[in-house]
């Protein structure tokens, strides 16, 4: 090759390209086209939907005559349908296109969130949250690949932006849920519907329609799990996400109980404030701490170290679950550790295989969300049958298993951090962007 289009000059001249394995900078993350920011905004709102119900779980339980275990099923139905749908979203996107997939997902969230605001029973909300989960799956599974595909810089920077959206969404979800939930438990659902409608319009206006991705088999994501590296990381993620959602979905109830023991009431606003701190810590470490650690320690050592610290934290919650100051402090520290874990794990998945990014992301996300779906369904009955600290003990055991999965399968992850940049001509670059590969 002797010439390239002007936008490919840097890669052709080969002076000092930045390899994909190099740690991305904040400049890489935030110097993005408007289309990327539109997707990131919608992703923020989408992730808000995960933590949005946290502050209103006790209110839903009380006002709709539901047990805490029933209320937590709002997470289970949402995450279970999200997980199952994730396995087929790459196939769906290959048939209808990335932009249409994003828009269909957002439209479903708008409809089911709006309907949840009018629900009359906890079982009705549980069912509507399942439909919400389907829309969320279509959007989330494609959002990362769409951001990577539309980015103007290294994919690592795009991943940081995606994780920033996740962190901000996780932080704002409980805060918005608390603020609106102090008015009515219905208000957070209506608010999400409105914000998602704004995200829908932003993507309609700012994201150009790409050519259809390469055809993908309906079973591509399931088959992708036969890849040893992806399977190792998926097994690690399912146990990690179990612990993640024990902390997120179960903790409002011990918080309320600890406050009641002191003669006070946390309420939706108090719970929302605690989890805002949790999500803010998650966002900060995702952006500012994780890149430093992965650069200095490497991805795999960062994962093992963070999982070990999370295990200690969950054990501490087992003993301090009845202390209001103790549980608040540990929840916020947990957010700091989860931010590091999310960024490092996502980047590891993206580097570990040569599978198309959309397929790898769908397979990995489907398995990890199953862990999140199981956690609320188990935590509530376990606490009712034993004591309030038992779910945290089980979460710590799940994290030990996650570490074991990572250590046992470490030989399959030798490619992590070893990829080298290869010059691409314009046609190859366009194809790589379309399927979500490195560019």
From TrEMBL:
Composition bias (Low complexity) maps to 1-15
Identify the SUPFAM superfamilies for this entry: MFS general substrate transporter
Pfam family name, one: MFS_1
> Which Gene3D superfamilies did the record assign?
MFS general substrate transporter like domains (1.20.1250.20)
Give the region (Disordered) as residue ranges: 1-25
| Assigned keywords, A-Z | Membrane, Transmembrane, Transmembrane helix
Q: Please report the record's description of how this protein sits within the membrane.
A: Multi-pass membrane protein
**Where in or outside the cell is it found?**
Cell membrane
Q: Where are the transmembrane segments?
A: 35-53, 73-94, 101-120, 126-148, 160-181, 187-207, 228-250, 270-290, 297-320, 326-345, 366-383, 389-408
Domain Major facilitator superfamily (MFS) profile, chain residue ranges per copy:
35-413
Protein name (database record):
MFS family arabinose efflux permease
Its source organism is: Brachybacterium fresconis
């Amino acid at each position: 090759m002797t010439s390239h289009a002007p936008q490919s000059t840097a890669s052709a001249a080969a002076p000092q390209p930045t390899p994909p394995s190099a740690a991305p900078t904040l400049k890489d993350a935030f110097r993005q086209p408007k289309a990327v920011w539109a997707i990131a905004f919608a992703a923020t709102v989408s992730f808000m939907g995960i933590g949005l119900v946290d502050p209103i779980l006790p209110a839903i339980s009380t006002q709709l005559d539901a047990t805490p275990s029933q209320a937590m099923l709002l997470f289970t139905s949402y995450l279970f349908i999200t997980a199952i749908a994730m396995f087929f979203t790459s196939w769906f996107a290959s048939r209808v296109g990335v932009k249409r997939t994003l828009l269909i997902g957002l439209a479903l969230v708008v409809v089911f969130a709006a309907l949840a605001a009018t629900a009359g029973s906890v079982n009705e909300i549980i069912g509507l949250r399942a439909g919400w989960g389907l829309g969320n799956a279509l959007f989330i599974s494609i959002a990362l690949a769409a951001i990577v595909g539309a980015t103007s810089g290294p994919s690592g920077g795009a991943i940081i932006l995606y994780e920033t959206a996740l962190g901000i969404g996780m932080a704002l979800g409980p805060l918005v849920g608390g603020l609106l939930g102090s008015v009515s438990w219905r208000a957070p659902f209506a608010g999400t519907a409105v914000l998602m409608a704004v995200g829908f319009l932003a993507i309609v206006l700012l994201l150009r329609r790409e050519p259809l991705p390469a055809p993908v088999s309906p079973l591509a994501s399931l088959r992708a799990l036969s890849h040893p590296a992806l399977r190792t990381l998926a097994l690690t993620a399912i146990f990690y996400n179990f612990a993640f959602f024990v902390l997120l979905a179960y903790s409002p109830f011990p918080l309320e109980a600890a406050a009641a023991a002191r003669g006070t009431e946390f309420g939706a606003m108090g719970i929302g404030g605690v989890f805002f701190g949790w999500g803010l810590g998650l966002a900060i470490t995702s952006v500012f701490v994780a890149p430093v650690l992965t650069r200095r320690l490497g991805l795999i050592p960062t994962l093992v170290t963070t999982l070990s610290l999370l295990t200690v934290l969950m054990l501490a919650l087992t003993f301090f679950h009845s202390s209001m100051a103790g549980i608040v402090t540990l929840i916020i520290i947990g957010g700091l550790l989860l931010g590091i874990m999310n960024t490092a794990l996502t980047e590891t998945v993206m580097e570990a295989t040569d599978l198309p990014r959309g397929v790898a992301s769908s397979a990995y996300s489907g398995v990890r969300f199953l862990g999140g779906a199981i956690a609320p369904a188990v935590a509530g009955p376990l606490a009712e049958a034993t004591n309030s600290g038992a779910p945290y003990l089980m979460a710590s055991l799940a994290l030990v298993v996650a570490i074991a999965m990572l250590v046992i399968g470490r030989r399959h992850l030798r490619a992590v951090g070893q990829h080298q940049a290869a010059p691409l001509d314009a046609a190859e670059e366009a194809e790589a962007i379309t399927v979500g590969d490195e560019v």
